[in-house]
TrEMBL record:
Keywords: DNA-binding, Transcription, Transcription regulation. Residues 38-172 form the HTH marR-type domain. This is MarR family transcriptional regulator. It comes from Nocardia aurantiaca. Signal peptide: none annotated. GO terms for molecular function: DNA binding; DNA-binding transcription factor activity. It comes from the Bacteria. GO terms for biological process: response to stress.
Length: 188
């Protein structure tokens, strides 16, 4: 890299400029590594998500093959966050309220959720899991837990060490509540 100097600069001035240019190169290299790292992490997460979706679908099918993955996601949200208004559920699912309402209709028909009057507003309904809905979530989760444990056991111990911290940070960054969340901490 050429050093551009001023004719009146001292040797120290030129040395300082060279150090600054070297620092800029190091920063640029770190930025390139960070960008590459994000791409590599994204690719790894895409691979992991394919596995997780496959495990989830298989677990769901073994417990109740009439429930779709989006319907199960609705049950999980109600399980982790507690009873919810349809509009709040729609936001959590990232769908329109009308789409969430249709999903709730199907889940009510299947006996997995109930609609109850909102004690704070007569015009609103609260959606909550039924006993059967809770059983489905628990059974699917137990099956997924066993399958995930089998995969983790196949991993070398050295590769497992940072997994908890990394996945916890990833889950938090994505806005998903932790697996051990107390549902009373969520608002309707």
């Amino acid at each position: 890299m050429p050093v551009h100097t001023h004719p009146g600069w001292t040797r120290q001035d030129r040395s300082n400029q060279t150090a600054v240019e070297r620092a800029e190169v190091v920063v640029a290299a770190k930025d390139a590594v960070a960008a590459e790292s994000v791409d590599e992490i994204t690719d790894a997460l895409l691979g992991a998500s394919r596995l997780l979706v496959a495990l989830s679908a298989r677990s769901l099918t073994l417990v109740d093959d009439s429930i779709t993955i989006p319907q199960f996601r609705t049950l999980v949200i109600l399980s982790t966050r507690g009873p919810s208004k349809v509009v709040t559920l729609a936001t959590a699912l990232d769908v329109q309220p009308s789409t969430a309402a249709r999903m709730v209709d199907r889940l009510v028909g299947a006996g997995l959720v109930d609609r109850k009057p909102n004690p704070d507003s007569r015009r609103e309904l609260i959606i909550e899991l039924t006993g059967r809905g809770r059983e489905v979530v628990d059974a699917v989760t137990a099956h997924r837990r066993r399958e995930l444990a089998a995969v983790v056991e196949k991993m070398p111990k050295a590769d497992r060490s940072g997994l908890i911290r990394a996945l916890t940070a990833f889950t938090r960054a994505g806005g998903e509540p932790p697996a051990d969340l107390d549902v009373d901490s969520y608002q309707l």
